[in-house]
Every structure is written in structure tokens, then in C-alpha cells.
Amino acid sequence: MTRFVARRLAQAAAVVLAAYTLTFAAFHLLPADPVQIMIGPQNAVDQARVAALRAEYGLDRPAAERYLDGLLGALRGDFGTSFQTGRDVGATIAEAAPRTLALAGGALLVAIPLGFLIAWSAAHTRRVWLRRLLGALPGLSLSVPTFWLGLVLLQAFSFGLPLFPARGEDGLAGLVLPAVTLALPSSAFVAQVLLERLTVEMRQPYVDTARAKGASRARAVTAHALRNAAMPALTMTALLAGWLLAGSVVVETVFARNGLGRLIESAVTTRDLSMLQGLVVVSTAVVTLLTLAVDLAHPLVDPRLRERAA
Amino acid sequence: MRRRLGVLPSALVLLAATAAALAPGLFSPADPLRGDLTERLLPPEAAHLFGTDELGRDVLARVVHGSAPSLQAAVIAVGIAVLAGSAIGLVAGTARGRLDDLVMRAVEVLLAVPSFLLILVVVAVLGPGTREVAFAVGVSAAAVFSRVVRAEVIRVRGSGYVEAAAVCGTGRATVLLTHVLPNAAGPVAALATLELGNAVLTVAAVSFLGFGAPPPAPEWGSLIAAGRPFLASAWWLTTVPGLVIVAVVLAVNHLGNVLRTRSETG
Q1: Which residues of B lie closer than 8 Å to A, measured between beta carbons?
Q2: Which of A18, A89, A114, B75 could form a disulfide with A278 if both were Cys (CB 3.0 to 4.6 A apart)?
Q3: Hey, where are the domains in chain B?
Q4: Residues 6 or more apart from A168 whose CB is under 8 A from it?
């Protein structure tokens, strides 16, 4: 088991290292020069100023040296300074993270129960029309652009019925609409994966056995099929972390919240490559670690895997 | 059989969207870029079916003219993803061993970076614009295709007719092109259709953030962004382009699901 964990940890570290290398290559080795990008093509700046800027950000040193320096810094949590604001990248990310964590946490709190509820009801009901309707819901909500969903919710529950504030800056009331906007598509992912597995599991002989022994249909779904079907949904939840970060870019823009999403958006607008590199490395690390955590948790849910891992 | 039910309406929606992209004049004779300032923010009525915006431009005309860049970007993105992904998958699947390991690890890294973030990074390097966005979306989707094609190659390699072809002395490249590739076509087509729906959504989201075509040009995403300040007073500015996106994505996804079921059941 420890060897298994060590190998998986090494794999995760390799993925994060590769993400760092990839962004470094994209930002520093391509013909596009970070200083030129920062200045912008329309602004003519004399060569001396360009050279001074290059020296200031250490861009005049050889690429290999910068790569190693940056890597060692990143290991200590130091991602350098932003090309645009001149502030420390790590500190800026740490400052914005709690707001996005609250948003993502709120979204998951709604999304997971909702996703399970939809899949459970669809597997449980014997009314064909209801099962079809519930089964179609995830696909429907994944066809709606997230940013537009946010605007529709704003129109309905902020301007139409003045229930929630339009600018979700702070406080619980401001968190509701943005969290629900992110939660609806997230719940669709969970429901889709879970329902697909549940449908397969409900046809298994052990479900018939449970029913023959007198278990109600609800119990057959909850206690028997759900336990076997829950694993892919669990994995999905880890993958959702990356999706929630992506969703926060548009949702935080729609609801004017300052968080990681807004940080990403403004880093792209100002083409702040050092900030973007920090954001990519941190988010890849988070997603990879979450995926790893879920993988390691699998044997806890499924006893069959426990024997294989041992 | 039930799945066939929505095929006709879905096909009609896509036909209309394609026609709007190729010949926008058919649907709306009004100029999408020039407006009459005396007709600002008019609600939907007979003369302007979907109302007018803050500069008096016809919303229907802007949505219709916006379909060309929006759909084009999505189609180019999926094209790039299919071509690049298939090439990578074919190489990895046929090479096996070291090269396969190396390529698939690289694909894993691409999949580990949240895809929307990857797209925005590419846009930050290349700069904003419809073509740049299409390229970025294509790159981020290529990884998924390479996995599907690689899996198909490995599945087909083991089958009897491929061995038979090899015994007959058929060259490796010919086997690849005439036996392996056609077999992978079904799953790739289904995935491509589903990815097209995703691409329409992603392109719209990137354009909503302001990284698509520059302002006067209409794009579905940027149309919605432009309507944001008038959310409380002029609902039609954001509602109409939003509903159009939903209709197109629903139609594409439905056809994709039909294709997927077909390729799975053979």
C-alpha cells in the first residue's frame, strides 16, 4: 500500500512539474517575447526601456537558469512577481483563493445532493415519463452557457424578484446566486455519471435477490445499487474541482466577485504571463492532488480494491 | 427508436444555423452594424422581431450575422482537435512501448490542466481574436481524441483481419489507413459531434469574457456581454442570443448522443 501511494505521489509530482515546464516553454521559448507582449504591439517603446524591463524581470538571463530558478522558487511557494501589477504572484493568489473556495464549496454543497437526488429518483421511479424527464435534465443543463445562466438568475431573482443582491461581493446572501449558477451544471455532471452506472447496476442479479428477499425498491437502490455505482461519481467530484475553477472565471465576472476567476480573467486581459503561470501550476497541483486523494479513497468505498492494493 | 424522435427538429435547428452562417441576408435584411439612434432599445415588435440594442441596431440581424464567426470558430476548433488528436493517437497506438508511454504521459498532463484555463493561456500567448480562440479550443480538446483513437487502434490491432492483412504482406501504413482508421471513424464522429456542442459553449464563454472578435463585430458570446448593462431594462438583449446558443448546443448534443448510441451498438 505504501509503495502504491509513493508511486502515485511521484506521478502527481511529475504531472505538476510538466505543467510548470509546459507554461515556461509557452511563455519563454516561443518567439513571442514576454516584454513585447506586456508592452503591446501598438505601443512603441525605445530599446533601452525594453532592455531595462528585461533586466528587471531577469529575462536577460539564459532560459535554463530562469527555468531552474523559477522551479526552485515555485517549490517554496514563490512564483515571482506579476509582470503587470508588480505584486507577488503567490500572495495575490492566496488572497483571492478564499473567495473562490467559498464559491466552489457552496456550489458543491448544492450540486452533490442535487446530482444524487436526480440520479436516485430516476433509478427509483417506475414511471417511464418521469425517468425520461429526469434523465434528460443533466443534458439540458449542460447545454446552457454558464455565464448566461448566471444572467438569467440575476434577471429573475435580483431584478425581477429582489431576493438577492446583484453584486455578490460578500456575505451569504451574495453567495447564493453565483453558487447556484455553478451548482446546476456541476450537479448535471454528477447525475449523468451516477445515473449511467445506476442503470447498469439495477439490472444486476444482486438487485433482484435483494428485492426477492423483501427489500423495497428504494432500499435496493440506496443500500445495494448506489454503493456500487457511487465510485465513478466520486471520481467525477474530483474532476469537478478543475471545472469549478474554470466556471468561476465567468461566474465571478457575471456577479462581480473578486476571486481566482477574476484574477485569471484579468491576467489574460493584461497578458500577465507570470501571474498566469502561477495560476496554472497551482490549479494543476490542486486538481492532481484531489484526483489522487479520491483514487486513494477508492479502497475505503470498495472492499474489492482493498485486497488488490494490499 | 425513442432517440430518433428528436433527430428531425435537431437537424432543422442545425440547418437553420448553418444557413444563417452562410447566407445571413436570407434571415434578416437589416444591417447588423448600423443602427438608427432614434430606435434605441425597442422591445420586440413587428419591425424588429427581437428588438433593438442601445445603438438602435436590430438584434435579430446581429444574432444572425453572429452565427458565422461563432459556428466557424467551433467547427475549426473541432477540426483541429480531430486531426491533431487522431495523429497523436495513431502514432501512440501503433508505436506502443516507449514512444506510446511518452506521448500518453504528455496527453495526461494536458488533461490535468483545467481545460478552460489552458484555453485562456493559449489566448493570452496568441492574443484575442476569433481564429486564436478556435485554435486554443482545438488544442485543449485534442487530448481527448488522441485517447479515443489510441484505444481504437489497440483494439483493432488485435483483430483477425488486421493480422490477415499483415500476413498477406500489406504494408504497415496501408493497414493503418484502410483497416484501422475506418474502424475508429464511428467513435471519433460521435465524440466530434459532442465536442462541437462543447466548443460552441466554450467559444461563446471566451467571447463573453471579451477575448473573441473586437467589438463592432457580432459574436453570440460578445452579444450577451454587450447586453449585460441593460439586464433590468432590456431583457431581449441577453435572452435572445442565449436561447439561440442553447438551441444549437441542444441540437448538436442530441445528434451526438444518437451517433454515440449507434457506434456503441454497432
Answers
A1: 2, 105-106, 108-109, 112-118, 120-127, 197, 201, 204-205, 208-211, 221, 224, 228, 231-232, 235, 238-239, 242, 245-246, 249-250, 253-254, 257
A2: A89
A3: 2-25+46-265
A4: A174, A175, A176, A177, A178, A255, A256, A257
